[in-house]
């Protein structure tokens, strides 16, 4: 009986999904001796949208950069699909970001020298995807989020809200396994906010781990999990 119970427990554990992303005892400091994050841990599961909330200055955006492999923790490690990445070389971390991650930055972070369409499709270049397919997908996403501007327009010629939606299109283009978003609705009206939140939830339901830094109670309430910093 005990052996049978143990076998069932092992089988159940094997069926349970492992975290798409995990922070394990992560510590980070900009100034030596003054940690922004200290021994911080959390697991982010596929199919789940998580809100990171809390007052300004608590390290939410810094945490997002750590989870996105753009900063190195002073202690602890980040795990992607159960594998620690702290020892990876920078080029390998960059490759992993291109293959697995999508980002929506707080200031949109669009390239002002490139067109709206090129800003959306640029991530496909790092993954060797077909240019025609990427352009078609980008056009569909821009229409879905109501970015009704000529595709050859430059970022400096669109509003802040449009720029944020363009950044979301770029992040969703390659169906990333992990989507990280820093205040993705900060410059949006309520109707467009609902559209963006629905898109983030839909992407999570498709199997991705979605992590959102937000000060909005509406956005946090729409998430499956809320973690306060």
* CATH homology superfamily name: P-loop containing nucleotide triphosphate hydrolases
Radius of gyration: 19 Å
Main beta sheet strand tally, sense and closure: 5 strands, parallel
CATH architecture title: 3-Layer(aba) Sandwich
Basic shape = globular
Query: What count of domains describes the coordinates?
Result: 1
What is the strand arrangement across the widest sheet?
6-7-8-3-9
Return the CATH topology.
Answer: Rossmann fold
Count of helical segments? 8
Average pLDDT works out at 88
Unreliable runs, pLDDT <50, ≥5 residues?
1-15
Strand content: 15-25%
Helical proportion? Answer: 40-55%
Distance linking N and C termini = 45 Å
Succession of helices and strands: HEEEHEEHEHHHEHEHE
Report the structural category.
Answer: alpha/beta
CATH class: Alpha Beta
Describe this structure in words.
The chain is of the alpha/beta class. It has one domain (19-228): P-loop containing nucleotide triphosphate hydrolases (Rossmann fold, 3-Layer(aba) Sandwich), CATH 3.40.50. 40% of the residues lie in helices and 24% in strands. It has a five-stranded parallel beta sheet with strand order 6-7-8-3-9. Strands 2-1-4-5 form a four-stranded antiparallel beta sheet, with helices on one face. It is globular, with a radius of gyration of 19 Å.
């Amino acid at each position: 009986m005990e052996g049978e119970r143990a076998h069932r427990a092992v089988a159940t554990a094997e069926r349970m999904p492992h975290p798409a992303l995990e922070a394990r005892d992560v510590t980070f400091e900009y100034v030596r001796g003054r940690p922004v994050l200290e021994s911080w841990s959390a697991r982010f599961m596929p199919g789940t949208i998580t809100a990171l909330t809390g007052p300004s200055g608590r390290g939410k955006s810094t945490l997002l950069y750590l989870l996105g492999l753009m900063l190195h923790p002073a202690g602890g490690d980040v795990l992607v699909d159960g594998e620690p990445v702290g020892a990876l070389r920078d080029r390998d971390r960059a490759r992993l970001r291109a293959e697995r991650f999508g980002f929506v930055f707080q200031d949109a972070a669009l390239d002002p020298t490139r067109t709206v369409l090129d800003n959306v499709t640029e991530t496909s270049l790092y993954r060797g995807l077909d240019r025609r397919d990427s352009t078609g997908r980008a056009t569909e996403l821009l229409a879905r989020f109501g970015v009704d501007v000529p595709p050859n327009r430059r970022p400096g010629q669109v509003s802040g809200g449009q720029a944020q939606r363009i950044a979301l299109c770029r992040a969703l283009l390659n169906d990333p396994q992990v989507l990280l978003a820093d205040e993705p609705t900060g410059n949006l009206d309520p109707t467009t906010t609902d559209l963006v939140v629905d898109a983030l939830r839909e992407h999570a339901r498709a199997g991705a781990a979605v992590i959102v830094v937000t000060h909005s109670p509406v956005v946090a309430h729409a998430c499956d999990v809320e973690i306060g910093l």
